[in-house]
Design goal:
Layout lengths: L3 E8 L3 H12 L4 E5 L6 H5 L2 H19 L14 H25 L4 E3 L2 E5 L2 E4 L5 E9 L3 E3 L12 E2 L13 E5 L3 H12 L3 E6 L10 H13 L2 E5 L3 E6 L4 E5 L4 E4 L1 E4 L3 E3 L32 E3 L10 H16 L12 E3 L5 E5 L2 H6 L4 E7 L4 H6 L4 E8 L5 E8 L2 H12 L24 H10 L4
Parallel strand pairs: 1-2, 1-6, 2-3, 6-17, 8-15, 9-10, 9-15, 10-11
Antiparallel strand pairs: 4-5, 5-6, 7-16, 12-13, 13-14, 18-19, 19-22, 20-21, 21-22
Helix pairs in contact: 1-7, 3-4, 3-5
Amino acid sequence: MATKHFDIVVIGTGPAGEAAAMNAKKKGRSVAVVSDRPRVGGSCTHLGTIPSKALRHGVKQLMQFNGNPMFRDFGDLNKITFPQLVKQTEQVIYEQVRMRIGFYERNFVPVFKGVARFVDANTIVLGDQGETLTAEYFIIATGARPYHPPDVDFSHPRVFDSDTILDLDHSPRKVTVIGAGVIGCEYASIFGGLGAKVEIINPADTLLSFLDFEISDALSYHLRNVGVRSRHNEEFDRMDYHDDHLVTYLKSGKKIKSNIVFWANGRTGNTDRLRLDAVGIEPNSRGQIEVNRRYQTAVENIYAAGDVVGWPSLASSAYDQGRAACNAIVDPDECHFVDEVASGIYTIPEISTLGKTERELTREKIPYEVGKAFFKNTARGQITGEQVGMLKLIFHFDTLQILGIHCFGDQASEIIHIGQAIMRQPGEANTMKYFLNTTFNYPTMAEAYRIAALDGLNRVF
């Protein structure tokens, strides 16, 4: 089988790999991508971001329908099952894959199928006896998968992680979620929204402790409201496996009986099959590859981007990282290291934050003030029935510069980007006064910025 040579070979077709490949092709390089899946899109499209958010949307619609008195005469939608909702995600996945295949076809980027293994710094083989590809540069964008501790039996039909949960064939009545990170909280809200009793095991003393304290408190309240109990300062010890249930033991001695266990405690970089030892790259204990601010690994011509490099492990940042890694090779002046990311947490309701929290500013002894807008007080919120939600703006007491934006409620991940655009402006353009001097459409959720600005500035002047 003949060896094929390219300027750049990208390993992985998730957000980072796709962005790197498209950027390289647009800038005139010969490029190929390698996919270890039958279809492009990576875990983001097939197992993670896309299906989970589509599933969450279905659950949210179901909750709205059941809670709206207008629809009481149309039947009881509580009978909709988890597998039925998963089925609805398949169309979204299909559309995403079709679109992404089109990207590669229109740009004449060949997609090679198989597991890439390094032979040396300029050569990979696909599988044990597959095609050989050589390149001047490689970009590793293989993503990550759920971490599997050796003492948990993930082959048991009642133990799931974020990659296998879509195979669940019934609606469980009791769910134990191990891990209270973003993925754990998102699925806890999904199962709670479907009417299950959920126990979420959290080793910390609050949910998502990196959030602003008011946002974290609001999340805890609304999870409790849908039957999710958070067990703080608790750690997993072991599990008893039975045909019809599981018993989870905590280190505190507590026992929890449930229909299924959803493991959401950490991620592992997909590097174990790359044979990185052949080129002198040594991943850390979680399979992640260390890179510099140009996404370059310890090997000069090999770069890495996306979840395989660790933080922030978001699809949005992976796109930017993949593009930046490519630019480091083909257009160094355009290489931008991703170090400021708006977080989007798709619980029900959703959360999005950017910048400093009150706790951080207090610790840094920076004088600040806060402005808030509650969605229930906006005309758009009243029209759509959104009684839950808040936009919180934190700004410097003297300069009025925006220091942090924290949003909880419907469309929070969309609303945050208005403030993000202003925070990135230089000098006086990045102040709370912008929201008073700009006319927003009415009624809109964007108007919350004007309300929050008025609330905050009234506390200063």
